[in-house]
Amino acid sequence: MKRIDLGGTWQMTNCTNNETISATVPGSNYLDLLAAGKIQNPFWGQNEAQASLVARDDYLYSRTFEVGFDLLRQPHVELVVSGLDTLATLTLNGQQIARTANYHRTYRLDVKELLREKDNTLEVRFESPYAYIKQREAANPLGGMGFEKGIGHIRKPQYHFGWDWGPNLPPVGISGKIGLEAYMARIEEVRVVQRHADGRVTLSIDAILGGEAKGRTVRSTLTDPKGHKQTARTEVNGSTAHLEFEIDKPQLWWCNGLGEQPLYELETQLLEFLNVEDEVVQSIGLRTIELDTRADGLGRQFRFVINGVPIFAKGADWIPSDSFINRTTYEDLQFYVEQAKWANMNMLRVWGGGYYESDEFYELCDRNGILVWQDFAFACSAYPFEEAEFLENVHQEVIDAVQRLRHHASLALWCGNNENELMAALWKKKKVTYEANYDFYYNILSRWVSELDVVTPYWFGSPSSGERSIDAASLDHGDNHLWAVWHGLMPVSTFRRMPARFTSEFGLESFPSMRAIRSFTDKADVNYLDPVMLTHQKSAGGNQKILFYLIDQYRDPLHFEDFVYLSQLSQAQAMRFASDDWRRKMGVCNGSLYWQYNDCWPVASWAGIDYLKQPKAVHYHSRQYNKPVCLSNDCYADRAEIYLANDLPEPIKGKLEWQVSGFDGQVISNADLEVEAGGVEATRLMVLNFNEVLGTKAKNEVVLTVRLISDGQTLDEKSWLLCADKHVAFPGPTIQANCAVRNGQAAITLHTDVFARSVFVELEQVLAPFSDNYFDLLPGQPKTISVAVPEGMSDDDVAKGLRLKSMADVEPKTSLLGDKWTQFKLRFNKVNLSTWLIFKFITRLK
Q1: d(Cα 235, Cα 240) in Å, to the nearest integer?
Q2: Average pLDDT over all residues of the chain
Q3: Residue 390: which residues within 8 A CB-CB, separation 6 or more?
């Protein structure tokens, strides 16, 4: 196989004004215009509106190149390109070679007869998506959610047209790879199937070959995690070569929290004598994965089973990491995936309005034990599956995606779509489209996937009950998206009455870090209703909803930075409340994936990590509530019920220590007891009645601390207030910090004289995440946290740059009665009232 990379420097011409600038491939028109200084940063201030006009023009990308005679004399020469975004006409040396209309496909185009050794010219003309969508929508109206009417007609990442967390900035360009491949024969795909039985694994390998492969040899080499190799080979008689490996004492791959992630390397080569003509290298994790949807006394299960062990899925929903995806580096992906592991997550759901992610993303998930729930690229829209040409275009997309990703150990599920079944009533009046959409997800796509991947489970959509006759929003079947809290303005406690079998979306918005906010505005007196802040808020009435939920738990703050701080704590408290409650119902509820893990630009959103890669409070807190062995408090007006959730298959025995203390550290009551919990289950350990443990103190004057000890090790430790923070008069703590820098890491040890609630730590010139943040600090219990710091930063630099905030520092704007009046007005503003009434009607709660 001979290859020529055609990435690098191209020319880009705006077809409206004929202006030509230098361009970079992979990339996009927005990035090229930014690099040339032709547009302002679309993320700054309110620049989005002006920048969106870029997408109304057509653009021509072009370059010249040379090829050697050795390449030209090969019998097959193909132009291979991925990430064509999206409506593209490709011309080589004046001859049109393709018109494409699907970002999600990889195209292989025969160009042998058009190439010459020198002065080859390749042009790719990209049409603006808007005219195409308008034309197709006029011919076959689909409607949509309002981000861009009719976007279901175009096979382009749907979020490009804006979402309720992202800007409307649809790029064009070549964001993937482009190059020439010349060969006599090649490996088209390698299909690997595992069979687990009697403590052994059989790897069945099928290499599908293209070109003139007969008479050649296929050789596969399997290298185990310790470096031991075994090899198999076979002569090629047709277009498929089959090989097998028997693996004794296999090292099983586990998701994060249940074990290690050993990976075997499988190298499959096509040989002509000793010459390697082509090769495919894959990392293989030995594991079984099942989706258990068996009927039970409530409805149907919905839980993942890995290597025979049922799991509670813990994690979040992944969206594209940038509006302009080529800005995302490998190091960015590494950060995000490793942070998911750090936060004790075991699953990310790749949402259907974006991309089938890069190979690097799935490889990182393989190495870190993060299971991937993979949506197909359909979201919140009807699609014209009744059109034969569109359906075949999608079929090729599905083939490309499944063949590329199916070998990954992290791949846990193929899911048909995001919210299309839930929203089907919006296009039910158009019977042909309505029926075609159901038929596609339930029959056609299901069949396609089963033909391509016999290992990975398929699910019809998210949410879905799994049956057309049962409401997609049923709490007793399938997975759920629960938005009565947030969109419906229902209290966070509503989650307690929503024991879904698996919650694949739920969330509460917060503001990003002040660093992220300062990346798009330098206004001194910024506030949550500032026009720039509203530009960076895409959910209708979102900033008002943030305040609405903030006031449920906290005081309405006087200062904007405190508003940002409290908004993140409000989000964290809501996600913790829901996740704790569902884990206490483990076996009935089997998953908690919050919306959303990340951002594609600096914005107020549901994200746990903002666009500047600054973890919010919910991300730090999720490390605690996602622990494989995890204590939780189901707190009521008169009591606290202490539970232990055990994800591990082995039972746990230990000692539970608890104490109730005042803010000065004085112990009011305490005790310990022997406890145990079975494997993969949650158990109520004890009930503390407040009238028995508070003594002369009130609920708003104490802290409850619990600790679980087993075999001399502390497995978990938690502290809780017994009422909402807004009812507590926090004492002003004196927090002392000792700072020491060693080998690029700053260790910061904090001491306090009185209870310090939700301590937020920030360090000037440091963006890296801390080992912990937004934590409670107890008197007499010093806490050490660490953070990576720039080279040359000293102990004194850390001490001088350290900023600490706790709840005692927050100054309220008004009285508690004033807060209630503010919340009342927020509920009854135009946007919030309508959504509240809608969810009040559609949410059937007992």
Answers
A1: 10
A2: 95
A3: 153, 383, 384
